[in-house]
Amino acid sequence: MKRESIRYGPGTGQVAEVWRPPGAGEPLPVVVLIHGGFWRQLYTKQLMHRLARAVIARGWMAYNIEYRRVGRFGRGGWPGTFEDVSDAIDALARVDGVDRRRVATCGHSAGGQLALWAAGSRATGEPRRAAPSVEVAAAVSLAGVVDLEVAARQLIGRGAVQALMGGGPDDQADRYRLGSPAALLPLGKPQLLLHGLGDGTVPAWLSELYARTAEGLGDAATYVPLPGLGHMELISGSGAPILELTTWLDAVFRGLATGA
Fold first, then answer.
1. Fold (topology level) of 2-258
2. Contact 55/235 with Cβ under 8 angstroms?
3. For the chain, how big is the Rg over CA atoms in Å?
4. Mean pLDDT, each 10-residue run in order, the chain (260 residues)
5. What is the rounded CA–CA span in Å between residue 60 and residue 114?
6. How far is the C-alpha of 104 from the C-alpha of 138, rounded, in Å?
7. Which of 76, 178, 186, 234 has the least C-beta neighbours within 10 A?
8. 154 to 157, 232, 243: CA distances (angstroms)
């Protein structure tokens, strides 16, 4: 295994880790890992290290990104957190050995929201920003906060959504329209939503409702409930979550390689 860090911006949080499997030669599919923690400064990309190891064990590249988060010194929130995720993905254009046809995002909890958002237009309403240069081909949400409006109204994360967006959905309707994956549907990309039915942090019905809505709008969205699992088990890199994740990604990557 080889791991290196790259910077995609001048800020302390604007950094990403490139994890390569041993003996990597030809261009590889890339799984962009986006950690959770309700977008708060306390939590970092280290949360995804076990998942990164599981990804490279499949022979793929893992790209574990950090981003500006909400907090006194985090300087995150709307739109900076979102722009960081987009810029980090665009920085893959400078990474050797990337198969840019096969880039998938995979986020946990708050990172699940960002992973699905990144599969959309990645717009924040800022006219001076350039269009994304690296396209996301598929997205995975692991126990994701996939509908920001519903999460805000249900106080999921105890005000974390409002802190991210600078207010509630009634005060910042345009931000929620641009930033919530549920509001962006259909995405036009394959999506996988894994959620533990024992999750006491983000309720599984949020993913189930999202997937049902996405399918109704014509998206290829798959919801997989995982009985007996809670919130953090989904990034353990073992058991049913990693089996479901890698099986789905393998099929997606194979299809993208053949144009199917």
1. Rossmann fold (3.40.50)
2. no
3. 17
4. 92 95 88 98 97 97 97 88 98 96 98 98 93 97 98 97 98 98 98 98 98 98 98 98 98 89
5. 21
6. 5
7. 186
8. 9, 21, 31
Which tokens go with 11? 């800020």
And the tokens for 31?
């799984």
Q: Are 216 and 223 in contact (CB under 8 A)?
A: no
The rounded distance, in Å, linking the Cα atoms of 234 and 228 is 11
**End-to-end CA separation in angstroms for the chain:** 31
Tokens matching residue 107: 């986020």
Q: Which tokens sit at 225? A: 């409930």
Instruction: Report yes or no: 37 and 47 within 8 Å, Cβ to Cβ.
Output: yes
Total residues found in the chain within this entry: 260
Please report, for the chain, the start and end positions of each structural domain, with discontinuous segments joined by +.
2-258
